[in-house]
Amino acid sequence: xxSPEREQExxxxxxxxxxxxxxxxxxxxxxxAAGRTAARPKPKGWILRPxxxxxxxxxxxxxxxxxxxxxxxxxxxxxxxxxxxxxxGPSKSRAGSxxxxxxxxxxxxxxxxxxxxxxxxxxATSPASTTNQPVADFLTCKGAVDKNSVATWxxxxxxxxTTEPVESLTVTIKVAMTAxxxxxxxxxxxxxxxxxxxxxxxxxWLTYTYALRKGVKLIPGDYIFAAQFTHRSGRAMSKDSYxxxxxxxxxxxxxxxxxxx
Amino acid sequence: MSADADRELAFQAFFARYHADLARxxxxxxxxxxxxxxxxxxxxxxxxxxxxxxxxxxxxxxxARGVLAxxxxxxxxxQSKERHGLxxxxxxAEEFRGSDLPAVLDVxxxxxxxxxxxxxxxxxxxAFDVPEREVAAILGISVGTVKSQTSRGAEQxxxxxxxxxxxxxxxxxx
Lengths: 261, 174
What we know:
The complex is a heterodimer of chains A (about 260) and B (about 170).
Chain A: H1 4-20, H2 25-39, H3 45-48, H4 53-73, H5 81-86, H6 92-100, H7 119-125, E1 139-145, E2 153-162, E3 168-176, E4 182-188, E5 195-201, E6 205-212, E7 221-230, E8 241-248, E9 251-258
Antiparallel strand pairs in A: 1-2, 2-7, 3-6, 3-8, 4-7, 5-6, 8-9
Chain B: H1 2-30, H2 33-49, H3 51-56, H4 60-82, H5 89-100, H6 107-112, H7 116-127, H8 132-139, H9 143-166
């Protein structure tokens, strides 16, 4: 039998061993998305099969009524903080300590992140332009809705390809405040130590900003910047946009665009 | 439709809140970060598929940990089967040598030496502070077994780590 002191020591050692490991959220999230796609059975089809044709028509009618209703729902006042915390309820005693163990949960509270310096430039260029594949001498980019997006969870991807070393780069993804978007993750294939990523929220936009750190040079290649968020179903992506400001040698690039489904 | 949306939101919240916790549990059980992330993700997919059961459970996290412990156990079984393969001779040799030289054991190595049941009980009880009754439910064993396995696990781990810390001069490396 270990002594009480030894037991405390072992507890501390094991807790530390668990906390020292920072799981890769993106990797887990991607595998979950892939697993869900694979697991999804022929969606509503099998429910319809045993039914008589007439009943099927009735179901379809109901579904479309529901669809119309849920798109009207968007006008309702948002119970926003609600749904995310709602599930906090079920596991009372364990929940408290479990949340305490999430140092990586990003400090994305709008007030916590200082307004980024790029905001003024990006708002100036973003909403109007609708070019989808802009080109500069050293940089091309593309905005696309990620194929793993589902009715109530989406990911917007901005992919850039650079042919020269880039000395400064800011990518901003603006998600319009329709259908109650709430931040659910963000990532980039640029090494994490080379970028700062912030998410800000105001009445109009959920804004993800990826900025290359000062002094870092991005070698030529393809890079992805992704914004993940939950939302109510039936959300239109048309208002979402991105802007890119980059600098390479004597060249500047200033681009913007929307996301293709 | 809105039931789907609610379910999705609830699942996303569950993911945000517990994915790291689950991955860490898998990590301490398997000792492998890649496997830990895969196992955590696969558990979350299972949880999403059986969301109704999760919501019906009084303790969704305990339910999730049970799913995860099963998948981790399967992974370990597959690993130990592979270990008999030629490809793993090297690792085998390392472990053999390791048993002679317990001086360099870190927590992860030490944990790996515990029989799986002890390891599961000890990790849940000590690293995650899960009550005995809950551990019993998660692993599908009796509270008595949880008690005895945890205390044997603690003793064994203390001995393994103790040996390592008591050696002042590191044993000569091969």
